[in-house]
Amino acid sequence: MLANLILASYAPTAVRPPAPWCADLAAILAGPDLHAVFQPIVDFADARIVGYEGLIRGPSDSALHSPLNLFAAAEQCQQLLALERACRQVTLRRFAELRLQGALFLNISPQALLDPAFRPGETLGWMRAAGLSPEQVVIELTETRPVGDYALLREATAHYRDMGFRIALDDLGEGFSNLRLWSELRPDYVKLDKYFTQGIASDAAKQQFVRSIQAIAHATGARVIAEGIETADDLACLNGLGLGLGQGYHLGRPLAQPARALDEGVTAALAAFSPCHAAHPWP
Ligand SMILES: [Ca+2]
Ligand SMILES: [Ca+2]
């Protein structure tokens, strides 16, 4: 497929999108080819799934199956907001169809939230049609570029909270996600980027970062969700540090039919206290 070849040589600096690629994207946006998958978010204290992050996949036979390629294409073809809108609709509908327990963590960019064309009533309409209420949805603010207007974003998130939605700050410590946004928006949840969780069991510096982030979270009334947990050791260490919530392959993969309960091994490990090793001390 020509679009695959074009994607393989995709350069972020390209100014004009290659037409076949945009045509593929337009077809995806017009059809039923976007699919939602869901990854569990786990409460460590009672080893329970308390919600799911909704993630998106393109058609399985296309280079646009990967969300990374899908969103890169949308950016190049100036269809980011249209893609986000389609993803929101698919994710809300599928979450309701699957009757998953707990909250749906729904990715939304600050740009989408602030766009004059963004219609909150439309999202609420889809939710009502699916039988969901705002109390069941956590808006995951995912920054892919710097936030321009903090005051406006604060206003927008306050508006959503008034409607019953909760707010999460995504990917703390990665890319543009920053402490200022945490301070300005006072989110209900802060999702800690996988950089800080992967290998934490044997990294004293990462453990200290997590303790400090925990302290800020405690002071501001936020709960930290550790992302990217892929090993039993890292899970035990994060649990031992007092982190309350986590997400990652070790707890459950993103799937079209996701797990509804934790593996017994994970449940047992969460019940047993196990401190971090800290083999590499803070220099
Ligand atoms: Ca996210
Ligand atoms: Ca994330």
From TrEMBL:
Gene3D superfamilies: EAL domain (3.20.20.450). GO terms for molecular function: cyclic-guanylate-specific phosphodiesterase activity. PROSITE patterns: EAL. Residues 18-268 form the EAL domain. CDD domains: EAL. InterPro entries: Cyclic-di-GMP_PDE-like (IPR050706), EAL_dom (IPR001633), EAL_sf (IPR035919). This is EAL domain-containing protein (Putative c-di-GMP-specific phosphodiesterase class I).
